[in-house]
Amino acid sequence: MSQHYYSQQPEVRHDRRTIDTVLRGKSFRFTSDAGVFSKGDIDYGSRVLIEAMDIPDGSAVLDVGCGYGPIGISAAYLAPKGQVTMIDINSRAVELARENAQHNGIRNVTVMESDVLGALNEHQKFDVILTNPPIRAGKAVVHQIFEEAYEHLNEGGFLWIVIQKKQGAPSAVAKLESLFSNVEEVGKDKGYRIIKAQK
After folding, report:
1. Beta-carbon neighbour count of residue 95 at 10 Å?
2. Count of alpha carbons within 13 Å of 21, Cβ hemisphere only?
3. Short-list 28, 34, 41, CA closest to 101
C-alpha cells in the first residue's frame, strides 16, 4: 500500500524543510518533512481555517489531524491561558508538531499520537475542536471524526471544520446537521468552506 499522510509510520525518506509564514499577524517558523500532509507549505484550507477560527482565551481546544501543527499552534497562540491538545495518527507529524510548538515558544500544547480521537480519555471534553479533515482517508473516517468530536465537546462548544465544496462539503454539512443543533457556514474562500457547528 502506498504511504499517505494518514499512515501511522511513514517510511518515505526524510526531506525536512523550513516554512516561514505569518498566521494571525504572528510570524511562525515550521519544520515539515516527507510523509506528512502539505509538506511544502501550509495548505490553503488550513490557512483559511486559522484566519477564521474564534478561540476564546482560556478555552480547552482540540486539533484533530494536527499534521506538523499550524492550526493547533495558532490556536494556542490565540488563547495563551487556554490548553490545546493536538492529535494525529502520523508519528512523524506528531514529532514535528512537538518540535514546532517548542521552536515557536508555544508552551500550552500537548501533542499525542491518536487514531481519530481514540487516544483521548472518554471523559476529556473541549470547548473548541478544530479539524482540516483527512478527505483522502474517506468519508467514513471524516464522519467518524465528526461523531467523536460531538462526544468530546462541552455543551455549547464549537466544532470548526474546513472542507472543499468539491471534496464533499454538502455531505459533510448533512452529517453535521444530523449531530449538532446549530450548523452554519461562516466563511468561504477559493472553494473552501468554513463550517462551525455548535453542540
Report:
1. 17
2. 22
3. 28
